[in-house]
Amino acid sequence: MDEDQRLGMLHGVAGMYAATIVRAIQQEYPNDLRHPMTGPDDRPTPREIHPAFYGCYDWHSCVEMHWALVRLLRQAPDPLSAGDVREVLDEHLTAEALVTEAAYFANHPSFKRPYGWGWALMLAHELSTWDDPDARRWSANVCPLADTITELFVAWLPRATYPSREGAHANSAFGLARALLFARVRAVDGDHRLLDAIGEAAGRWYGNDTDYPVGLDRPRSPTGSTASCPGSPTARPPHCWSRRSFLTRPTARSPTCTASTCTAPTPINDWLSDCQPVTSVDGCCGMRLAVMPTPRCPPSAAVTTWLNTGWRATPSCCSRQLSLDPSMRELSDAWAALTGLGQ
To answer: What is the pTM of this model?
Structure first.
């Protein structure tokens, strides 16, 4: 499916996506606050300490969903109730609220590191690169949070001895890849520190990696996350190491998969520009799957639960359970169009 077809599908579901996200980011409870209490009176509500990002069950999901709303406004504005979307963004992305969000990190510097940090910089990048009057105002308001997280990244990365390689939120490469677009723009503006720190850490962590077992990969792809992370900001883009030695061809069947719980092999296509492109691979249950680059892959069967409830009822929102239901495939393709990071 080409990009125009994906965008067409996105237009078909954009209104549903937006309406559901607007509800979710305003839903304060249930909430996984992750706030360490320092005394009997240190019992804030989510909205008190996170006036911009108090919804969606947890902070990082709420930040990501604000990014998704901004992305929808840019990619598919016609089907949206754009006034409602802009109204809720105006309510949340105020200067006062974002100063409070940034100040929280002064006493909690490891909060949501690195996954939430990456999504915060994704939001900042999306706003800063959009030529829109509202976006320019929101971008200015987000700057204190983006500046704070930039400083935290720059201080943390040189001290991080080794990466987290798990297939969940703590994956280091996934967080760095989310921060990369923001870092590149900031470097163009003259501040290379974040881009240099990302490149140095990624090269140190992953530069000698070879023969990743792609066929045994897991839902939030450790392999895909690592391969999408730059090894050096000055190397041949987007990676400094040889992808031919980094990846092995995906196997058709994972020994841990069963017909009832089948997860997709790692998407390895568009970002493998100097390898022989793999347009599709065999799923572990014999299903033929289209392969999309990692940043474009939504949780396929989990996406309706995630979006319709506004918080994750499954252990991981990225448990990419396969479904042959055509409507699920359409949602997947529409989400891929929304999250196409190269646009």
So the answer is: 0.74
